[in-house]
Structure formats: C-alpha cells, structure tokens
Design brief:
The protein contains five helices and five strands, in the order H-H-E-E-E-H-H-E-E-H. By secondary structure, it is mainly alpha-helical. The strands form two sheets. A three-stranded antiparallel β-sheet has the order 1-3-2. It has a two-stranded antiparallel sheet with strand order 4-5. A hairpin with a 2-residue loop joins strand 4 and strand 5. Helix 2 packs antiparallel against helix 5 and helix 4 crosses helix 5. The protein is elongated and about 65 Å long. The chain starts with a helix and ends in a 16-residue tail after the last helix.
C-alpha cells in the first residue's frame, strides 16, 4: 500500500479509494443484473420458491441460486458482512426468509439486497478507518528500534 495514501495529510484518500471501489463493484453488479435478469414468473413447478431478487418485473434467482451468476457470487463474497447483517435484520421481520410479497414492485429479497448495498458502504468505510488507524500506529512505532552508535570516547 503506498505510504502517500495513508499519511496524515491525505487522511481521507484511502477511505475515498475504498468507497469508490465499492461503488464500481455495485455499478458492475447492477449492469450485470440488468443483462442477466428475466421477466418475473412464479415457479412453474409450484414449489415454494422465493420471489428471488425482483425489481419491477425483472428477476434473478427465482428458482435458481443467485450464486449461479458470477457477478452475484463476487458481490456476495466481497460484501459478506453486509449480507449477514441484512439477512439477520430481515429474519427479525420474516423468520421464514422466503417471502412472496412485493412492496413498490420490489421483492422482499430485492429490498434486502438494496439494504446490503447501503450497508456495504458503511462496511468499507469502517474497514478503511481501521486500516488507516493501524497504519498510522505502525508508522509512529517502527518495529526495529534505532541502533545506538558506539561510543567515541576513549576509556581509561
């Protein structure tokens, strides 16, 4: 990691870098989602599938796993802490975690994904702050103590 990114005079540069990288990841996600999505249709086999991640009639993961898609898998693993928090909060409101309800044309899983996206910015903001703090602490206290020069005074 470049020292210039974590110096006190560039206090917010590392935070901004991580938040911009997170934004780029979500832009990639939503573009890939738009390309991979299909028209929402209830599970044709009649099994109790969820409504997947559905936004105004366009879905992924209605009957298949979202992890089937490389873009979803990438976001899932990179944003895992945010996904976990969003699912825990969702579980409070819907213990079954499979909801066939929609609100404003968005499935409940879709709302959970939006919450994950918002939480991910907090996640990476906090990660950046912790990394900056640890880096500054390490910079102030180098691991190797400076060696003392041998005495130039003659003994005796």
């Amino acid at each position: 990691m470049p020292d210039a990114m974590l110096q006190p005079h560039s206090k917010g540069k590392f935070v901004k870098l991580l938040l911009i990288a997170n934004l780029c990841l979500w832009v990639y996600f939503w573009l890939a989602f738009a390309q991979a999505s299909y028209r929402y249709r209830p599970d044709p086999l009649g099994h109790p599938a969820g409504t997947g991640y559905t936004y105004w009639g366009h879905s992924i993961a209605v009957t298949e796993s979202g992890l089937k898609y490389p873009f979803f898998k990438t976001v899932f693993y990179v944003q895992l802490p945010s996904f976990v928090i969003a699912v825990l909060v969702e579980r409070v409101f819907d213990p079954r975690l499979i909801s066939h309800r929609f609100f404003v044309g968005v499935s409940m899983a879709g709302w959970s994904l939006l919450a994950t996206m918002l939480l991910s910015f907090l996640q990476w903001y906090l990660v950046a702050l912790v990394v900056q703090k640890l880096w500054r602490r390490r910079s102030r206290h180098p691991l190797a103590a400076p060696s003392h020069a041998p005495s130039t005074q003659a003994s005796g």
